[in-house]
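dumping these here so i dont lose them again. two proteins, back to back, each one seq then structure tokens. dont judge the mess
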Amino acid sequence: MDLREFLNVSWESIIGNKMRSLLTMLGIIIGVASVIIMVSISAGTEATIEDQITGLGSNLIYVTSSFGRIGARGGGNPFGGGGAGGLVYDDAFAIADEVEGVSAVVVEMSSSETVKTGNASLEEVTIQGTTADFPSVRDMEIADGRYFNQREVDRKQKIAVLGYDLAQELFAEEDPTGQIVTVDSTKLTVIGVFAERGMVSGVDFDAQVYVPITVVFQKFTPSMFARFMGNNVRVIYVEIESPEVLDSTIQQIELLLAKRHEVSLEEADFSVTTQQDIIQTQESTTAAFRNLLGWVAGVSLIVGGIGIMNIMLVSVTERTREIGIRQSVGATPNDIRWQFLTEALLLSLIGGLIGVLAGVAGSWLFGSISDMRTVVVFSSILMAFTSAAGVGIFFGSYPANKASQLDPIEALRHE
């Protein structure tokens, strides 16, 4: 018998028992679909996180403060050398002035306050104190009015730029520019409104009030030690001119801050990371999670393979007389073996194909009806389909061997 005959006989057997064949393939269908859907959910989550990280801006370096080293500067004196460890506001200016390859530097300090206008009052609104380069670094656009400049930051001007949604809530159809908003007990003049940005990395940029960071230091987060140590900040965002200068810029920043803080690089009270560092960290985490999901879904394939073996064993018993007749007309044990192995493989491939279609459709449907993003990964389709074929061959081998070993005379006697 050649391959065409094997396929014809196997297909006739599958068609002759449609319901049993469908139930046999069900485990393979569920297994393949599960693998594709699980991997697509994981890949979608990974893509969402990466988009959120890159959505914060481009070519960014994050200089993060490490508090907890009291007296890290100035030989243990908390009032010496600028603070009790960590970054201060003046560090940002030093980076902007002395480090080559830097195009912009932003510092942020937030507070939660009540915001009032003549007709509206909103509680727990985020007041984001920042610097003049904020729109450039954060890829924000002004829809109306203007943004404040560095001179206004230095002079602690009581001005504000509103997020898009917040401006709508406070002023409705009225033009906010030139209006007064009261933040806690401080009156601020609105000079502009940002264009709609939306939610990025869990931060709603449209629901914040943006003011000079010096105003936040003075009015909302005052520190009695700021005069001696400087105003502590948590993160300094550094935008570089191009990715080519990334390594040299990081090295310059580390050396500059270590010198300013009077610490060695091994004992630095700050850390320097990049967007790519964060993306790689989350990729390793989600990759492990994706592999776990893939293995869990792969169990369904094994269950499906066991189902195929079980049904094929039943088929061998039911078709014992047919096997005897084939042997009597010249079919060799190898022909019998290949006949049943082809049938098992065909069941797996058809089930795998249906599973692929179900998996792709399920991934699309899940992404459409839920808040989670899904991304169908081609390699998962290939892996799941190949695994289905492997399962068919592996679990079909035992029934095929058993069929090939039947004694022709005993087989012909079987009722």
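---- next one ----
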Amino acid sequence: MGVSHSWQLALAQAPIKAHSDRMLADIETLGLVDDDEIELDLAALMLSELDHPGLDIEESLVLIDDIGERLFEVGGLAESAAQQAEALAQVFYGDFGFTGDAEHYDAPLNSDLVRVLERRRGLPVSLSILYVAAARRLGWEADALNTPGHVLVRVGDENSVLIDPFNKGVRVPPQRLAALLHGAVGLAAVGRAEHVAPMSNRIVLVRLLLNQATRAEQGGDPLRALTIYERMTTVASEHADGWWELARLQLQVGDTEAARRSLSAMLEVTRDPKRRTLVAATLEAIAAG
């Protein structure tokens, strides 16, 4: 669906601004708002800001504004998904130089939105967040997809188009999608609906944070990983895996009381019998000491 005439007029007269007064006060608030009220890039920027105390993020906000204004100039009249996808690629890669950091893929700064905006390099999930948020501000349908190992963006509802923000925003034809899925989950799983399903805003943020936590553990910093899982459970309290990983790390650092609270919270949000049995057994083991 293209931008309506009323949207065109409003955007032309007063471009959408991502100023700091539109950002939520803290991540506790982010955890309470409805999912569709979350603006992905601002939420990810707020999470990133936690790792940069005292940093003035005005430059980041101005860049987000500039991207939005340029996208309106290039694609404000785009009606088809193909036209919108082309406009996104032109603006993000062609005009602003955003692309994937293949050379330093596992570097933590690639999932830190402050640094992604500075360097204009990032992971598939961090770049997808920027694409999706910018598209939605023009009233376009856009979603980050749950593609294993490599987040893609779907633009449009009917006759939708898949694009790869990590690879200059190029279109992803069916054969390329099949190859990505084959590489990530094996031939037998190719075509499963959950692998190309749109993620909720919270789950996109969870996936971003999961990248940070995984890299922290791989780098031998469990306390950093623990901090990230705390953020994850605050932002997405219904995400049972976040509670489990948080409890695991709390036990690893010897904080059994915190682990008990995390496991109890997990019991509140999961109805899976196997998981509940596992959590109950873990709680019993903690009590037995």
